[in-house]
Design a protein that fits this description.
Helix content is 43%, strand content 30%. A six-stranded mixed beta sheet has the order 1-2-3-4-5-6, covered by helices on one side. Helix 1 packs parallel to helix 2. The radius of gyration is 14 Å and the shape is globular.
């Protein structure tokens, strides 16, 4: 299956889904006015991927901030991953956070689905180096 990618902007996150390289990443800031419209192709790609996924899928979410419409779209993505998990596939979410708000949101998502979440605090040094490589 071919991958899926969106280059991030000031309001849209970078999204890289590359099954061949085992990279599943959503990073940046997500504040589109219409999150449903923006995330629709992302969710459709995940749905297609779920029919023949890799043996393990680790989705890394590294969002500095996201709005309500993005939050709803993330939940739909987690529901799709949850279906893969229920079908016996290894699925994990690595939730990166810089502050209590993002950590709390990740914990809320983890409570709503059965897939395992791993929480990773992004240090100021890691954040600085990731900005340099972007």
């Amino acid at each position: 299956m071919s991958g899926f990618a969106i280059n991030g902007t000031e309001t849209f996150p970078t999204i890289i889904f590359n099954p061949q390289e085992r990279v599943f990443l959503i990073k940046g800031i997500s504040t589109p006015e219409n999150g449903k419209e923006f995330y629709e192709p992302v969710i459709a790609w995940l749905e297609a991927y779920s029919s023949l996924p890799n043996s393990e899928t680790d989705l890394v979410i590294d969002l500095e901030y996201f709005n309500l419409s993005s939050s709803k779209a993330l939940l739909f993505m987690f529901y799709q991953l949850n279906q893969m998990h229920d079908a016996g596939h290894k699925v994990k979410v690595t939730w990166c956070y810089r502050d209590a708000y993002i950590l709390s949101a990740g914990r809320d998502y983890a409570f709503m689905v059965k897939i395992p979440f791993e929480f990773h605090k992004v240090s100021a040094k890691e954040h600085f180096h990731s900005q340099l490589s972007s």
